[in-house]
DNA sequence: ATAATATAGTTCATTTAGTGAACTATTCAT
DNA sequence: ATGAATAGTTCACTAAATGAACTATATTAT
């Protein structure tokens, strides 16, 4: 099979899955946060004391985009800013109690939705798939 | 391993890969079209005589979003509209010669970029991965 | 020690992409 | 022949991104 065809198939499938997961998050789970916002919130939850710059690097966007995103999460009371006393330029981000509850609730809901689809896969296939996906993410992040 | 952890890892990796491919398309290949626009253009190329409604279904967005997207591609001279003579409500979309050249060029460029990363994978792993990804896309599209 | 440079984050104007409701035009159904 | 359905557009609005200009700190070099 040609590499070109494989890449085309990859692109089509990846796009569909990405969009379907977003729709799931949007329609089935909550209407008061977007999937981009949830991804950022999730990152802050998993990386306590991270900065805007960290997020910009993780998601591959400019810092001004992160400021706007942070503001939206802050306005919803899900995160807070915390200035570093040693280096006053730096602002650490952390999730509020409300934010922690929110992430937990959303993950549970998302899990129970995705579970339906995962019944089509056996454990072995899931492991192999995630392993390859993480490997791809890793080599692409290194560049 | 817990399903929750697997889903979290999936989300993180998927997000990273999705964004890296977009950055690749944006930085390395062309500055005059977005990856969303390219995805739409690619769909029209592969589905000659498709309609706005087809695209809305494929990408899971509203028809008004498609109208706007189609306008952007039309303004760049990459696609054209073609009204159906039997059912005057329907407008078929097709790619112009310029659009065909553009897709071909972009795919070649994208391929040569992605090729670098794919050297880390053997054929077997790529096939298995794409097979699983397409299966996931399929079961999620069925719902 | 001070001047120049670098870093962290924000603001602002602009573009892209999406929503959903209201609309036009056409076709189908009873 | 009228009423419902379908295809696509327009409009006002929000989210997310860019990049340049900016503020406020830290660091480095002379």
Automatic annotation (TrEMBL), chains A, B:
Gene3D superfamilies: Winged helix-like DNA-binding domain superfamily/Winged helix DNA-binding domain
Domain HTH marR-type per the UniProt entry, residue ranges: 1-138
InterPro entries, per the entry: HTH_MarR-typ, WH-like_DNA-bd_sf, WH_DNA-bd_sf
Domain of life: Bacteria
Entry keyword annotation includes Magnesium: no
Keyword Transcription in annotation: yes
Keyword vocabulary terms for this entry: DNA-binding, Transcription, Transcription regulation
UniProt xrefs under PANTHER family: TRANSCRIPTIONAL REGULATOR, MARR (PTHR42756), TRANSCRIPTIONAL REPRESSOR OF EMRAB OPERON (PTHR42756:SF1)
Protein's name in the database: SMC-Scp complex subunit ScpB
